[in-house]
Amino acid sequence: MLVFDPSMCEKSGLVTAATDGRLNFWSLANLRDPAESLKIGANVSCLAVAPESNTVICGDESGGMHTILTSTGAATTQASSSSRSGGSRRVVRKLEAGDDGAEGHFGMVTGLATKVLPRHSSRGIAKGFLRGSSGLMLTSGVDWTTKLWAPAYTDKPLLSFFNHSYDYMCDVQWCPTHPSVFATASSNGSLGLWNLASSLDEPISGTEGIFVDKASGSAQGLNKIKWSLDGRRIVAASADRLHVLGMSEDVWKPKGDEDARMMHNLTSRGFLDEDKV
After folding, report:
1. 46 and 172 in contact (C-beta within 8 Å)?
2. Distance, CA of 105 to CA of 248 (rounded, Å)
3. Reduced to 3 states, what is the DSSP secondary structure of residue 99?
4. What angle do CA 168, 269, 176 make, to 5 degrees?
5. Per-residue exposure over 131-164, b if at least 16 CB sit within 10 Å of its own CB, e if not
6. How does pLDDT run across 223-240, given as a tens digit for each residue?
7. Is residue 50 within 8 Å of 129, Cβ to Cβ?
8. C-alpha span between 183 and 187 (Å, rounded)
9. pTM, rounded to two decimals
């Protein structure tokens, strides 16, 4: 069984997902047999864990998004859109991204990123996700788009960032040190950098992005990217190569007000209701 992106989960120790839609929750004291297992009814393509709430989020090969909450965390979800899997203590809920999922991804979700929190948030939790900027989530897909979500407020994505070259988006990751910066990886070999405190429309890397392996003369797509914990470097995987890119201070070092500016940009454009944030 193929396993994708094992992610640390505070209460269960480890959670893994496979392409057949099965999720296994493991105790670090016993890695021979899963402590809990359930199926979400779709082929899982990516996996992440929401900070603090312990909610698991999965993207599938058809573009669907699913959340797996503990019984207590599911108290605020609607019974009509939730289902309990067998004897599991967890509840599976599919995000209804518009009519027939029309506002979600068309095709496989290739990457999923939740925020890394340097300290505990006091904004509260709704529907298994933190309120405010800490609960923002990013996804990438084969439909040329990267999408920004706020599941604590709405099942629909807030906005979509399009790849101007019409190539697959293969991965997306929040910067661990800067609250409004994220990076994207494209199948044409380019790395994109965005700062949502500066603009919701244009990446700071330019519309063409940064071509990682330009010297090789061949356009190798980027498969996965990962920030270093200090935000100063990004590792990009391309075919059989790993590339390490150094980031300038403008990218990884926040000035202090970026979080508020990002939320102001989202509320002023009507993507979030200012009275609810």
Report:
1. no
2. 32
3. helix
4. 55
5. bbbbbbbbbbbbbbbbbbbbbbbbbbbbbbbebe
6. 999 999 999 999 999 888
7. yes
8. 14
9. 0.87
Retrieve residue 91's tokens: 């509840």
The C-alpha R_g of the chain, in whole angstroms, comes to 18
Query: Which of 132, 176, 138, 119 is closest to 48 using CA atoms?
Result: 138
Both tokens assigned to 158 = 């807030």
Task: Provide CB contacts within 8 A for 146, sequence distance 6+.
Answer: 138, 139, 140, 160, 161, 163, 169, 172, 184, 192
Residue entry with tokens 């925020």 = 115
Amino acid at 5: D
Look up residue 193 and give its two tokens.
Answer: 């950098």
Residue-wise pLDDT for 84-125, tens only, equals 554 567 888 898 876 665 689 999 999 999 997 765 555 688
Q: Which residue has the tokens 């068309």?
A: 106
Other beta carbons within 10 angstroms of residue 272's beta carbon come to 21
Query: Contact at 8 Å (CB) between 180 and 187?
Result: no
Q: How many CB atoms lie within 10 A of CB 45?
A: 25
- pLDDT < 70 stretches in the chain: 1-12, 71-88, 98-102, 118-123, 215-219
